[in-house]
């Protein structure tokens, strides 16, 4: 800690909320699972795990519908409402409607874990955080799932809250300290049930486990407490059995949202704001890098100060968004700021959470699309017909899914409320979602154009072969027509001789046709040479000889 630098140890966070939002890529289901979807398979095995599917907040009884949910709903534009909540139930009441009109989001929640105990550093007293929600978000047509871990605490020292933001949301250690603990990770993280028993504990200090896993699988291994939380989802490369498998999409640091209600936020210095806004990137013990562009232009790049003023009588809520983090800081003494039903806290947990979720859904899905294209190209071997057919199926399926993603999930405008729309644009801009979308769209378009050109090439080859056969067949047809079809009186012989003559003629004609197909490219070159007035008779005869002697080159 560095109290001499910013004196943040004297300040306290009266109310602390944080939400991790971790996008993960789901592996395609096996061929033995017919017409199954990930969430359907996940729900079918609920007797074996603690996750339970939950409905949305639109209950059958309007008296159970809260105002905070109404405020959340009306904050978004109609097409976003349909994406988040589905269509109205009145005309969709029949069973025949199926999934028509329902939201493409499928949420599962577990309630067996009540608290999170964090020991941030060796020798420090542990900090206990209450679990608000543990959710998994599945999305129709997308091989992606998002884990949401929402925690809260009261009356934390500001430096402890900042350390939590830096150390908590990490899937695996990026290295190890000299003492053996994971670098930048919490020294220990424990999930506790309602009786206080430990459900799972982190193992970032087990250096050998992570080294061995990366050496064997060329993929990072996640900490035990995260692996336990996600079951029955299992890491793709692990030897643990499981039909639902996932892969990491990005770096080990998970996107995080934080809500901090502090005393007298206007008294925070610029270094305090820098450490809070860049808490997920800036090590708490390191000096602030004053020459870093992100630090120099911090207010311009990351701060949204619509509700912030240096005037004591003005608003005192500041939003700081870097893409991978969204931090909201305000006055703990302001009742509206900490109001969980109508105030900023309610908006943070509902409207702004959905903004953050959609932004990271966009980024995660686009990265998965790009990864799928890479896998398809790596699996392609043009010398193997089965590989070519598999490549075409994967590219066409990816193209269709991308079209559905564009029309179902991709938005430029979420809300007519200026601040919500501003935060959406700011978060998407820092995540480079628009640029990433353009890159993936161009990649898929190039793949689709390649498939179209390949199909046209094959059709052209077929047309060339048919043209060659037609031209040479025309010669035979005209010749026999000139002399008549009955030059040899086959009809005067016995039945067996006529059958034999028919079979021999069919075999001979078939052989000539097959020969023409095999030499179609060379014969086509010969026909082009015949049409070239610059070539003499000897050149044309030489081309015909080459066409009759040389083996076909396998197509155009």
Choose one word for the global shape. elongated
Helix count? 18
Total domain count = 2
Mean pLDDT: 83
Share of β-strand residues? 15-25%
Instruction: Give the terminus-to-terminus CA distance.
Output: 71 Å
Number of strands: 14
Write up this protein.
This protein has 556 residues and is of the alpha+beta class. It folds into 2 domains: 3-89 and 105-449, no CATH class; 475-549, no CATH class. The chain is built from 18 helices and 14 strands. Strands 1, 2, 3, 4, 5, 6, 7, 8, 9, 10, 11, 12, 13 and 14 form a 14-stranded mixed β-sheet that branches. Strand 13 (318-321) and strand 14 form a beta hairpin. Helix 12 runs parallel beside helix 14 and helix 13 (385-408) crosses helix 15. Mean pLDDT is 83; it is low at 1-7, 90-97 and 552-556.
Write the layout of secondary structure elements.
Elements lengths: L2 H4 L5 E15 L11 H7 L7 E3 L12 H8 L3 H8 L19 E5 L3 E7 L7 E13 L4 E14 H10 L20 E6 L4 E4 L5 H11 L6 H7 L3 E2 L9 E4 L7 E7 L7 H8 L15 H4 L1 H5 E2 L13 E4 L3 E7 L12 H6 L1 H28 L6 H24 L9 H14 L1 H51 L11 H24 L1 H12 L5 H13 L7
Parallel strand pairs: 9-10, 11-14
Antiparallel strand pairs: 1-6, 1-10, 1-11, 2-3, 3-5, 4-5, 4-7, 5-6, 7-8, 12-13, 13-14
């Amino acid at each position: 800690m560095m109290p001499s630098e910013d004196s943040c140890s004297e300040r306290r966070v009266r109310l602390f909320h944080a939400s991790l939002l971790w996008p993960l890529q789901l592996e395609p289901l096996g061929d033995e699972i017919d017409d199954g979807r990930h969430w359907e398979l996940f729900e079918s095995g609920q007797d074996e795990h603690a996750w339970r599917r939950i409905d949305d907040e639109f209950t059958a009884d309007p008296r159970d519908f809260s105002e905070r949910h109404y405020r959340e709903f009306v904050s978004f534009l109609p097409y976003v409402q349909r994406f988040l909540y589905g269509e109205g139930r009145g005309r969709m009441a029949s069973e025949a409607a199926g999934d028509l009109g329902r939201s493409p989001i499928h949420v599962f929640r577990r309630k067996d874990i009540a608290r999170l105990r964090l020991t941030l550093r060796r020798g420090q007293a542990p900090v206990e955080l209450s679990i608000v929600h543990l959710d998994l978000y599945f999305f129709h047509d997308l091989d992606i799932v998002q884990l949401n871990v929402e925690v809260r605490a009261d009356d934390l020292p500001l430096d402890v809250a900042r350390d939590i933001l830096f150390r908590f949301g990490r899937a695996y250690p990026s290295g190890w300290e000299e003492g053996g603990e994971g670098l930048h990770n919490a020294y220990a993280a424990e999930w506790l049930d309602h009786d206080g028993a430990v459900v799972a504990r982190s193992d970032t200090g087990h250096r050998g486990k992570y080294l061995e896993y990366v050496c064997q699988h060329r993929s990072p291994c996640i900490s035990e407490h995260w692996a336990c939380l996600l079951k029955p989802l299992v890491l793709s490369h692990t030897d643990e059995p499981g039909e639902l498998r996932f892969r990491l999409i990005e770096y080990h640091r998970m996107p995080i949202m934080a809500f901090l209600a502090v005393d007298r936020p206007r008294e925070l210095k610029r270094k305090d704001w820098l450490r809070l806004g860049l808490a997920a990137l800036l090590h708490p013990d390191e000096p602030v890098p004053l020459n870093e562009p992100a630090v120099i232009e911090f207010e311009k790049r990351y701060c949204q100060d619509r509700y912030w003023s240096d005037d004591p009588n003005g608003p005192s809520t500041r939003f700081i968004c870097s893409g991978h983090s969204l931090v909201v800081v305000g006055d703990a003494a302001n009742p509206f700021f900490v109001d969980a039903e109508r105030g900023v806290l309610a908006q943070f947990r509902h409207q702004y959470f959905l903004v953050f979720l959609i932004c990271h859904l966009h980024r995660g899905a686009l990265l998965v699309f790009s990864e799928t294209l890479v896998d398809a190209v790596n699996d392609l071997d043009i010398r193997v017909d089965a590989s070519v057919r598999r490549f075409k199926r994967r590219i066409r399926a990816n193209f269709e899914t991308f079209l559905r993603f564009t029309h179902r999930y991709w938005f430029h405008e979420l809300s007519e409320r200026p601040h919500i729309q501003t935060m959406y644009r700011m978060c998407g801009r820092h995540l480079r979602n628009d640029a990433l979308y353009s890159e993936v769209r161009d990649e898929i378009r190039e793949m689709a154009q390649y498939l179209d050109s390949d199909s046209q090439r094959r059709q052209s080859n077929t047309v060339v072969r048919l043209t060659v056969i037609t031209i040479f067949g025309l010669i035979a047809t005209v010749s026999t027509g000139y002399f008549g079809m009955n030059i040899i009186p086959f009809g005067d012989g016995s039945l067996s001789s006529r059958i034999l003559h028919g079979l021999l003629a069919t075999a001979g004609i078939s052989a000539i046709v097959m020969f023409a197909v095999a030499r179609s490219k060379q014969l086509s070159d010969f026909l082009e040479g015949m049409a070239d007035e610059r070539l003499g008779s000897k050149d044309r005869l030489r081309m015909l000889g080459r066409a009759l002697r040389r083996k076909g080159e396998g197509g155009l």
